[in-house]
């Protein structure tokens, strides 16, 4: 149970930023290098949320099958994405206004590898808002394991009961629950449809609608 809100931790892709178009472009570069047909943006969005490796595996699976060793394809995806990280990526409407208005320590906990996560935040002028940015390779586990979120909270100097995690997917929800962290679910992101039985602590479909007053008496 939350004691009082002392920090907010955010997911990145599908929560703060609409990065799917650049991920989609990089994924199709990877597929072309493997002599595979391209996938659609909608398919790419449905594959996001569990890290680059899973995105590559899923893209290969629907275009002819995933080989036992996807390492070379993952490396090609990393190269393509690093070369064109933010050409089509934008903040979701209202994000910057919310971040500007928050007077709490903030962090990012994403399954995107840490280096491209930091590079993306630098390019979009987001880094200045965050005390900590952790990626899918920062710890030995990825979300929905609790470790990345708990590590991020520790880096902020707080406990799980003193923070709120904001995300857009079932993976994010499970991460928060596994870490015993309160969760706010952004339904304007990449989760394709409502999920039965999902009971987040807060739900909002536009950033202007995020209400934090229930989590902190000081807000």
UniProtKB/TrEMBL annotation:
Q: What class of enzyme is it?
A: hydrolase
**Which molecular function GO terms apply here?**
metal ion binding; phosphoglycolate phosphatase activity
- What would be one Gene Ontology cellular-component term for the protein? cytosol
Query: Which coenzymes or cofactors are required?
Result: Mg(2+)
Which Pfam family, any one of them, does this sequence belong to? HAD_2
Pathway membership, UniProt: Organic acid metabolism; glycolate biosynthesis; glycolate from 2-phosphoglycolate: step 1/1
Recorded family membership: Belongs to the HAD-like hydrolase superfamily. CbbY/CbbZ/Gph/YieH family.
Q: What is this protein called?
A: phosphoglycolate phosphatase
Instruction: Give the species.
Output: Litoreibacter ponti
